[in-house]
Amino acid sequence: MRTFVRLAYLLVFLIVSTVSLAQQITVSGKVSSSDGAALPGVSVLIKGTTIGVPTDAQGTYTIKVPAQSSVLVFSMIGMMAKEVTVGSQTAINVTLDDDSRALSEVVVVGYGTQRKLDVTGAVAQIKGDDIIKQPSMNAVSGLQGKVAGVQINNSGKPGEAPQIRIRGAGTAYGSANPLYVVDGVWFDDISFLNSGDIESMNILKDASAQSIYGVRAANGVVLITTKKGKSGQAVVNYNGFVGYQKVTNPIKMANANEYATMVNELSTINGGKPILDPAQYGQGTDWYRQILRNAPITNHQLSISGGTEKSTYNLSLGYLYQDGIVERNNFKRYTARLQNDFQVLNNLKVGYTATGAFSSSQDEAGGIFRQMYAAGPVVPVYYADGTYGDPTDYNLGDGNNFNPQVTVDFYNQITKKTLLTGNIYGELTILKGLTFKSSFGGRYSQDETRSYTPAYVATFKQRNTTSNLEFTRPQARYWILENTLTYTKEIGDHNFTALLGQSAQRDQSYKLTASALNVPYTREGDLYLALGNADGRNVKDEGDLATYASYFGRVNYSFQDRYLINASLRADGSSKFYQGGNAWGYFPSVGVGWVISSEPFMQNQRIFDNLKFRASWGKIGNASVPSNLSTLTVANGGDLAAFFGGQLYTGASINSIIPPVTYWERGVGTDIGLEAALLKSRLTVELDYYIKETQQAIFDIPVLSSIGTSSSRIIGNQATFRNRGLEVALNWRNTISKDVSYSIGANAGLNNNVVLAVSSGANPIYDGGVGLTGGAQATRTQVGDPIGSFYGYIVDGIFQTEDEVKASAQPNAKPGDFKYRDISGTNGTPDGAITGLDRQVIGNPNPKWTYGINTNLTVKNFDLTLDFQGVAKVDIYNANLGWRYGNENFTKDFYDNRWHGAGTSNTYPSVNIGGGQNYLPNSFYVQDGSYFRVRNAQLGYTFAPELTQRLKLKKLRVYANAQNAFNFFKYKGLSPEVRANENKPTQAGIDANVYPLSATYNFGVNVTF
């Protein structure tokens, strides 16, 4: 009986299968754009199933459907989806309209999405496909030159995050990074994120768009949406490249013969005798060539995505390996990401995203770029017997008494970083148009930096008698809970969307530092603190805890898609500002828009396809500052102990002067914008004028050290400054034929930064001492000038003779020294003496112009991408030139143009540039930092479907890429792209031991299975 039942089931199965096969209909066709161009990669899905196929490079497809009643869904990102019932058709050709031309392109805004038509703030969107085209190690680098008003400074150091400024500096103390929101979780840095996992990046540039994130929006907001799975068959994608990095625009230093000549000149100027015989030396050692190298780089990403109508998934794995251009310097990163969405009920959707990242780096030797610049070329790397070349043997003094190869060989520091982050959410549709969403996310990170200095003897100065092992382990735990209620209603010509939300956050960090002496080295795995001397161990720990509570709301209204209003309010409470009942800050905003092209009087015109005017105003805040600024702290230690009556008493000292109350840093911004689309939307234009004012900005102002505190600064709400500018973005795209299409985009941003008020009045804020000798500081922040302006003496030439020196305001100078301009004495007029009163603003590290040009060309199966980027009207302080304590080397440019006798030069000083008053900040060290570069050049080829189908592939593309290969600038350093030291705007633009950017050449492949 049981066998009979099984046979019956088998018979029924065969009959049903036969009927199903008999009813299947083969449908084929082509999908095109409204311009008639073929659209490859369009998803053709049988509605209600997971069965689907993509269109090939010619836009064609073939699919089998079960019945005439089947409905085919044609969809593609950036295009309007279309549904077609099969019926009796076997050939179905479809034309998809561009979403942007229909004014329904969706952009991500705070806590939701909006049609581009409805946005009243300044929001820029970059697709993930545009970011991944550049072989950038950090996704933020891919934005460089693509968004008007966004300045990005990259570093050549492996694993180093770029510095980003959105419409100028939004703060001057604490973190100047924007807020990154990745799938609902807040970050200061996204170095953990693989560029291939990004669906889109949306930059909120004005206060109206940012204020919904009030507590952290002062430096701008970047919303990142990662890729999600889509219903349909599983799609496997591999994207990888391999290549190498090469130093661009290397500095040519003086060779050994030229160096010996200058060393003798310097000794003579200072009353000594010649030290070296130039005839004994030829080219000598090129320390840049010795230490720097071509560095390999490789990146691989594998993703699997798919799902059904009820659930979707996306799994991604990534691996990056990057050698630094400095010997022994490298970086490795592993990433894993899993995302799932589930349609539990018709009105309930839940999902999660989990990401893990681990990185490990062998760090570059500290100060190595300073050493390569300064080391004497007369010193060999090694002597004939294999020992290290010793500068002491050449009587060069202590200014450059180092062999850079020794520094590299004995530097041993490894940094490891582990990050786990995730987010879970639930979205419930309560009623039609009413949705409740709850999400909980967080991150956990644990880093470790292990530094080991062995006992060694390499040269007379480069030696260490006691080994030292140190571990630094910072940890961070963060969570965020957010609940939002959204209601959307359409009543005739009126559209309303209301949002109410609540948020709570907790951010805790802890850092432990421990060290020990005399730890023996056998191998890397045997470095333990317990192996060191018990009396040489040291432990220090510190931590921080900040909590936030927030409530926010927003209302969007539109009438006939013509008149738009957007208003929001956020209230943030933070434990960082609890003193004096000042914990809460309130951040309102309002934006209005007028779609002029929808007006009746515009219907018969043929110029504009879209024309929209918008204006906005808002307030934003900044909590990215250290906690407990108004809490008085004290220090104690052996140096504060004293004996009274034969008894030892431990004393204490106040660490710093603190203000009684620290208030929120507040930003107030206004934006006026115009958006237009012309010539059948082939040309789009976007213009913005903005004013962004930071009020009650937190600064640290120097005070006299004689007051007895360990810190000679007072931190508090000290200043108000303003960024004001203009942005323009133009984009043209066109399809010439089915085989040829292209696009050209250009953007530019003009920004002027100025300090409006400082609580210290006429007393300026000085900073920028990195790389400067004698305790000098190169920047000043004062009312009427930009933040961190270069400040010093104006050079009016070079003293040629002793008589000229005696007749000047610098009687202690020597021939060959800088001749400073006598500007003002105590009475405001030249007084015949050069003093600190003669210093002036001599440069601006804040770029006035940033710009980019982005082009794409497709000819049949070939595609070419060319991206250009640059900055203009910006200055760099070349601290390398004057950073001297003795016989440091000089550049070939300095050797060729130096003063070495009356009449030889009136622009370059003598080799005594580090002596007398020559090292003081002056206009000679300030150089033009403007540059123009070919940011990215990529040539790709997509193989024809006939080949990929035979290989069982959906898509196969190969490409060759060059990044930063061509750079044009006048700056006399390695690179004019100089990052702010400690990411502080008051220390921006100073080139001292900067890890320079390099060019990257690579070959890659993209395969879809």
From TrEMBL:
Gene Ontology CC, one term: cell outer membrane
Keywords from the UniProt entry: Cell outer membrane, Membrane, Receptor, Signal, Transmembrane, Transmembrane beta strand, Transport
Pfam family, one: CarbopepD_reg_2
This protein's record includes keyword Oxidoreductase: no
Organism in which the protein naturally occurs: Spirosoma terrae
Protein name per the record: TonB-dependent receptor
Family: Belongs to the TonB-dependent receptor family.
Keyword Signal (UniProt): yes
Signal sequence segment: 1-22
Recorded topology in the membrane: Multi-pass membrane protein
TonB-dependent receptor plug domain location: 116-221
Subcellular localization: Cell outer membrane
